[in-house]
Write a structure and sequence with these properties.
It comes from Anaerosacchariphilus polymeriproducens. Keywords: Membrane, Transmembrane, Transmembrane helix. GO terms for molecular function: FMN binding. This is FMN-binding protein. It holds the Pfam family FMN_bind. By secondary structure, the chain is of the alpha+beta class. It has a domain of 85 residues: Alpha-Beta Complex (Sufe protein. Chain: A). The protein is 44% helix and 19% strand. It is built from three helices and three strands. A three-stranded antiparallel sheet has the order 1-2-3. A hairpin with a 2-residue loop joins strand 2 and strand 3. It is elongated, with a radius of gyration of 20 Å. 25% of the residues are buried. The model has no long low-confidence stretch (mean pLDDT 82).
Length: 134
């Protein structure tokens, strides 16, 4: 009888903890999905090198810092300076940055399986390019 009581309490604690955890993850996902990319006008960029940061949302999970280079009025290079998610296995940001460079817009397809992080990386780029607006 005592064994069943302990098991029930254990399961209840796991359930409550899981519910609280899921609530936090869910709120962070909603915030990340709704990140506004206000639309930098790529036709009005001043040449230079700019640093942009995104603080990563309410839990700072997607914090990132980028360096964006503008030459002859075009974005010519984007480098990820730092990210909480950066590792040898996480190189999808390179594909995302190449899309921005090729299309000269932030309205690019995000990386499948990394949609929320892609939006965070795009926000870092936008924050850099806001400084480049003429």
């Amino acid at each position: 009888m005592v064994g069943w009581s302990i098991a029930i309490v254990f399961i209840a604690v796991l359930g409550i903890g899981g519910t609280i955890g899921w609530s936090k993850v869910s709120r962070e996902h909603i915030e990340a999905k709704s990140l506004p990319l206000d639309g930098v006008d790529f036709n009005k960029l001043s040449d230079g090198t700019y640093i942009g940061e995104y603080e990563g949302g309410m839990y700072k999970w997607r914090t990132n810092k980028v360096q964006v280079t503008v030459a002859s009025g075009k974005v010519t290079d984007i480098k990820l300076i730092s990210s909480k998610e950066l590792s040898e296995n996480n190189t999808y940001h390179i594909d995302l940055y190449n899309r921005v460079l090729e299309e000269q817009t932030l309205k690019v397809d995000t990386i499948s399986g990394a949609t929320l992080t892609s939006k965070a990386y795009l926000q870092g780029i936008e924050n850099a390019l806001k400084q480049a607006q003429k």
